[in-house]
Structures are given as C-alpha cells and as structure tokens.
Amino acid sequence: MIALWAVFGYLLGSIPFGLVIARALGLGDLRKIGSGNIGATNVLRTGNKPAALATLLLDSGKGAIAVLVARHLGGETAAMLAGGAAFLGHCFPAWLGFKGGKGVATFLGTLIALHWPLGLIACATWLLTAAVSRISSLSALLAAALSPVFAWGLGRPDLIAVSLFMAVLIFVRHRPNIARLRDGTEPRIGKKG
C-alpha cells in the first residue's frame, strides 16, 4: 500500500498544469518562454495573470489533494509519502522527459495539507520575501530552507524529513536561479519573458 501511495502522489503531481493552461489559452509553449519553467511564475511572464493564478492554485492543489486523500485512506505516513511523491512528480514528470517545474507551489500546497500552520508560515515567508525583494526564486529558497526549522519549532518533528526532502530538491531545481542571484541578474516578479 505504501508503494501505491507513492505512485498515486507521483502521477497526480506530474500533471503539468502550467503547460496545459498556457497551450489552451494560446500563450505558447512555456518551455520556450522566459525561464522555460512550467510553473506559475513563468506563466506570469506571459502577461496573463489569471492563467498564472490558475496554475498556482492547481499546482499547489495537486500536492494538497495527494496528502488529503492518502491521509483519509491510509493514515499520516501515507499522507507524507504521497505529498513528497506529488512534489517529486511535479519536478520530474515522466511524460516531459523528467523536466518539470521547480516545485514551489506544490511544496506550499503539500505543507498546508500536512500541517496548515506550517504551510501558512512558509507561505507568509514567501510573501514577505517577495514583497521586499520582488524576486520569486529568493522567496522560494528562503521559505524552503526555513520549513524544516518551522516544523521543529511547531512541535512537528515528524514533518522535518519531508520538509527537508522538498527543500533540498527546491535548491537543486533552482541552481540556475542561485547563480543569477549571485550575479544580480535574476528577473523580478511580473517581468515578461
């Protein structure tokens, strides 16, 4: 059953909503726009805010749904596994040659479903950093890096491992962004690709 929850989470997480929405609305192939990422930030670079919002909600929703369904039917361990697998599926979807998104929305949705105070604190960290810096990647990196610390501080040591797993992958997926942050060339939120 544990393996089935992992497969369920991965398959749900690997649905590339940003790519589907952009194509459906005639915005082009996201992989050839801006950063080439299939997530909400790159959809925003097309100038279509409703499409970016829809991508954000759907990408976060797939992590949350994976957690909630698995928890209801399989318990807390199944929920953590399905959430982590959904995140993995978003970052490395088999049908896109394992070249997916950077996982930030799915990460936040997964955390909210696992433990809503942890998820909301991570969201608040992202929002505050974005408001100050106007840089999505910096906001994501800070929220991800602090999530295991927040889990510990909230008395949920059981969530440290899954938070750390997602944080490490967010850093891996953001390697080009980290290089641009060091060079001062990282684009700001809302800049068209």
UniProtKB/TrEMBL annotation:
In short, the EC number is 2.3.1.275
Annotated coiled-coil segments of the chain: none
Q: In which pathway does it act?
A: Lipid metabolism; phospholipid metabolism
Keywords, A to Z?
Answer: Acyltransferase, Cell membrane, Lipid biosynthesis, Lipid metabolism, Membrane, Phospholipid biosynthesis, Phospholipid metabolism, Transferase, Transmembrane, Transmembrane helix
Q: Which reaction does it catalyse?
A: an acyl phosphate + sn-glycerol 3-phosphate = a 1-acyl-sn-glycero-3-phosphate + phosphate
The listed locations are: Cell membrane
Keyword Membrane assigned to the entry: answer is yes
Molecular function GO terms recorded: glycerol-3-phosphate O-acyltransferase activity
**The UniProt record lists the keyword Membrane:** yes
| Bilayer-spanning residue ranges | 6-25, 78-98, 104-128, 159-174
Q: Which family does it belong to?
A: Belongs to the PlsY family.
SUBUNIT field: Probably interacts with PlsX.
Q: What does this protein do?
A: Catalyzes the transfer of an acyl group from acyl-phosphate (acyl-PO(4)) to glycerol-3-phosphate (G3P) to form lysophosphatidic acid (LPA). This enzyme utilizes acyl-phosphate as fatty acyl donor, but not acyl-CoA or acyl-ACP.
Q: What is this protein called?
A: Glycerol-3-phosphate acyltransferase
Species assigned in the record = Paracoccus fontiphilus
